[in-house]
Design a protein that fits this description.
The structure is a homodimer. By secondary structure, chain A is α/β, with parallel strands linked by helices. Chain A has 16 helices and 17 strands. The radius of gyration of chain A is 27 Å and the shape is elongated. At the A-B interface, helix 3, strand 2, strand 10, helix 12 and strand 14 of A face helix 3, strand 2, strand 10, helix 12 and strand 14 of B.
Chain lengths: 430, 430
Amino acid sequence: MYFSPEDRKSLVWGEKMNVELISVGTEFLIGKSINTNTFYLAERLASLGYQVNEQIVVGDEISQIQRVLKSSINRSDIVFVMGGLGAMKDDVTKKAVVEALGISLVENPVVKNQIKNRFKDKKSSEIPENIWRQALTPRGAVLLENKQDIIPGFIISALGKKIILLPGNPKQLKEMVDQKVMIYLKDWQPSIVCSEIVKIMAVTEQDVVEKLGSLMESENPKITTYSQIGEVHLRIIAKTNSKKEGKKLVTPILEEIKQCFGNLVYSTKEDETLESNVVSLLKKYNITVSTAESCTGGCLAGKLVNISGVSSVFGQGFITYSNKAKKKLIGVSKNTLKKHGAVSKQTAKEMAEGVSVTTGSDVGIGITGIAGPEGGTEEKPVGLVYIGCYVKEKAIAREYHFIGDRNDIRENSVMAALALLRTTILENYK
Amino acid sequence: MYFSPEDRKSLVWGEKMNVELISVGTEFLIGKSINTNTFYLAERLASLGYQVNEQIVVGDEISQIQRVLKSSINRSDIVFVMGGLGAMKDDVTKKAVVEALGISLVENPVVKNQIKNRFKDKKSSEIPENIWRQALTPRGAVLLENKQDIIPGFIISALGKKIILLPGNPKQLKEMVDQKVMIYLKDWQPSIVCSEIVKIMAVTEQDVVEKLGSLMESENPKITTYSQIGEVHLRIIAKTNSKKEGKKLVTPILEEIKQCFGNLVYSTKEDETLESNVVSLLKKYNITVSTAESCTGGCLAGKLVNISGVSSVFGQGFITYSNKAKKKLIGVSKNTLKKHGAVSKQTAKEMAEGVSVTTGSDVGIGITGIAGPEGGTEEKPVGLVYIGCYVKEKAIAREYHFIGDRNDIRENSVMAALALLRTTILENYK
């Protein structure tokens, strides 16, 4: 038992609701895996008004896990321990935690049955010992079922604190957090936390901060900006005594943001991305689209095709990286390329029109630009991108200047094209 | 001063060369940014035989930074502190560290000159105070110049340890580590560390571990696997007394791995990716390629186009998501689609041939598959993908079964297509 009577006295379930996140895994210490679990969980906790004090990564070693667990419990109310729950030899998290807390392991009939079902071709005696060990769960702990695997998670109440054990597999962790842990976290939070997300396309963090001005300094509700490629997400969080009161605090801010950014606000749904929003709009108005990409080389199409069920609105696209392809495949005129160059407003327009006419789609998008690092000139520098959009027999094109490396410029171009596509749909079909 | 005389006595530059990484930034604690710095640095340290004991993230608060710094210095020989070095109000890392170590700040003429050059349009008195503060550097520290910004990094020698301060911007950090810090790290390592990377395409971690068998258990040189999408990287690390001896240990292992995996070993260069390797090969043999993508929707082309200078070997591609596009754009026969279906070996072959003939390229690649979550049947389940390759008037196609979500299946398909393309080039042109 790692906590002395003095330790125990000072440990009480706090008012401040501080949280620490411990990731267990030598793979992180040697740079083998990137720690996405912490990133995901931290955002989920912030959305409920919890404050994460510290994030720690240690290797798969009992003494290390116990050392950091003890300090974390001393400092915080809720401690997450992620990873090392599996059946392998180096999965020692469960043992380390129960030993540190002085809790025994008991066989859990639910997990035992899951194991039997999973290995129903085998006799009980044929199932390896390390698999059976999964059925040993900390006495008194809440079991968090894992829908993708046998390995359960746990919520342990000890020393006036909550210790939450989660699997290290990111998909399993995400599902367990979303389906189970969030419910408990909402429940433990002494205030009612009202949280809304607002997603704004075609803006930078600086745009948002400048435009919203003093609104950004509001304490309750508090607004946090999450800068993404080509868009910004805002989270509005109010802490109150009732849901109704929370809504009353959040709604006017939400309305003010919507007013401020108009159609650039594309979603207030947690799960919706710009590409899924655009595909939904295309489906809603029954509009087909096709793409012609030069510097983005298929990445816009790739984003659209990542939305399941896109086939009714997007069926074909072209990568016209060379001038030959621009002329031959989508009919950009030789004259335009000669007079204005491949990276020009005119070419972008002709690409958009050409791809729409060639494929018979309602809308055509054309992207041409200089992604670098080579190919820039004083007149046409690296980062210059033109995006054309053709709809209802009219072609428009916009000029963009992106900064960063080749990949940054390409990713920004794709997001800008999605934003232009969304604007075009709303202007022409609503 | 945070270290007592007793503290100091126990602190000596160790033999074990343990390292800890402290990231400073409230943005990580609220899930606003993903911590890629730690991931990058951990791999670089592992490649030199250093052991990272712990990774910690704290907010932008002096007391927090000092608390974790003190524990880290007690446990380790080298402590990295990343982030919080800028000119903003919440950039407190430098202050926190020098205070904790009892070191004073002195004005550095090199940084002062950089500031003057950067703001040469302004008088000295017009440059804001917070910018001038960048010129204050810890007394006796080694200055690590930042080529992308004014903000320098530092190597501080104190208490028998090394404390290394690096900027939080990932691109600046990466450059500083690669160009400067690695040189010092090599120098401090008491053993000579010989390290080689081997990149193997079209294999899983399990394949590698099974095929290499007992070789994986070797202690010196040690082999670590880094599993990536569609490929595995192996790092061979030997610790010895001389470079020559290190090479003698590493070379036979490298040869054994090459023998074992033959042409699947595509690179032993740190910076080379599969796509850059394939583009180099295409250029070497002067081969042009074109692509026709269904389920990957342009992502293969997108990967190729991300290589600067690809235009001489890749000029055009098609996204043929619909059957109509497959027929109209690249001439897949109606009969094939009817008889075998869009997801079939035959269709993949005809896509590859069709795109090669249509564009006049030397090689054509066709990808068709079921990325899910919908569209799977018992006969053709989600994850079934066919990749066709047409070269020298001959079409071949391979069948793949990938697992995971829609995006996993698409990413794996792209990597498999690159692997097939590489194999085809080597078989037909070497």
